[in-house]
Amino acid sequence: MAPISEEAFIEKLRFEKFESEQAKAEESLVLLEHVVANSEWQTGSELLDLLRNVVTAVRVKMPWETTPCNMVQRVIKIVIDEYNACREVSEGGGYQSLKQMMFVDPASGDLPECTETIPELRNRILEVLAEHKAEIEQSQELIAVQGESKIHNDEVIMTCGMCPMVLAFLTKAAKRRKFHVIVAECAPKYDGHQMAKSLCSANIQTTLIQDCAVFPMMSRVNKVIIGTQTVLSNGGIKTFVGAAPLASAAKFYSVPLYVCTPTYKFSLESSEEVNHCGSRNVVVPPNSDIPSSVNVMVAKFDYVPPENVTSFITNNRGIAPSYVYRQLSELYHPTSYDL
């Protein structure tokens, strides 16, 4: 097969056609496997340069998407780890020592020199990518099985909008637990209606409410469980519009807020990069009397700060917001922080 260019990579990653973040991650990894297997590279440094060009192009063309960048940066660490393993060079195992974390300069953006030609490097990288792909495919199931331990009988759970990960989590828990779910409709998309319908189909007692009723209803809620698009480097989340007031109401009433998220959503992106605007057609009908000269700002995402999040429920384990930095050090190489 012919090697894939950055333009072709981005064209295949037009994510409007994907129904979930998991589908985006799986497709990203398939394309990255193609890059590793079919591109003309001889050394690890040449492959790292290809991957750096890919992540830069994706960020320029689709700045609102973090999943493909996460996958590329994950592959960068895999390449470096496998290169070092082939040369029997250890960087301190799976955890970086305090000395290594202090003396690495992420701002330099310089990837390690992997200039030695190693014939078996390509096959070793592809083997690890296959394992990583299997982990992504199983992530939703691994999160869902934790539902029984997180939810107890007769509890009242609140969520917002439609999230396949949260739906699987609640559906799995409902097989052994009886509980009540309150779903905020999540305007202006109103995909909370679909969530409520799916929960009812799973024989879960469900109540659909308007977004404005979140605060008065929160006093009777035991837990808030939501999904997210991205876990940011400071432990906050970039998620659907409507999550910020939901999280603020939960904090006011001291209700724990859990975020169901696989580890491939953990990103090096900072909170300053969250604000992206969507199309005005989301809230303004095409035949509206509002003149085109009026600027209509429509937020694509909400930002929830780390102090409003109790814990992340991941496919590996529960992670507190203060522990996100350690998870990032396990997933990504330090020099990826400024790519």
Can I get a quick summary?
The chain is an alpha/beta fold and 339 residues long. Helix content is 41%, strand content 11%.
Written account of the structure:
The protein has 339 residues and is an alpha/beta fold. The chain is 41% helix and 11% strand. It has helices spanning 6-12, 21-38, 44-61, 67-86, 98-103, 121-144, 147-150, 164-173, 192-201, 214-217, 243-252, 324-331; strands at 156-160, 180-184, 205-209, 223-227, 230-231, 237-239, 257-260, 302-304, 311-313, 318-319.
Write the layout of secondary structure elements.
Elements: H1 6-12, H2 21-38, H3 44-61, H4 67-86, H5 98-103, H6 121-144, H7 147-150, E1 156-160, H8 164-173, E2 180-184, H9 192-201, E3 205-209, H10 214-217, E4 223-227, E5 230-231, E6 237-239, H11 243-252, E7 257-260, E8 302-304, E9 311-313, E10 318-319, H12 324-331
Parallel strand pairs: 1-2, 1-4, 2-3, 4-7, 7-9
Antiparallel strand pairs: 5-6, 6-8, 9-10
Helix pairs in contact: 1-3, 2-4, 2-6, 3-4, 4-6, 6-8
Distance between the termini: 28 Å
Shape call: globular
Strand percentage, roughly? 5-15%
* Radius of gyration of CA atoms, rounded to a whole number: 21 Å
Which class best fits the helix and strand makeup?
alpha/beta
From the structure above, extract its key features.
339 residues; alpha/beta; seven-stranded mixed β-sheet; three-stranded antiparallel β-sheet; 11% strand
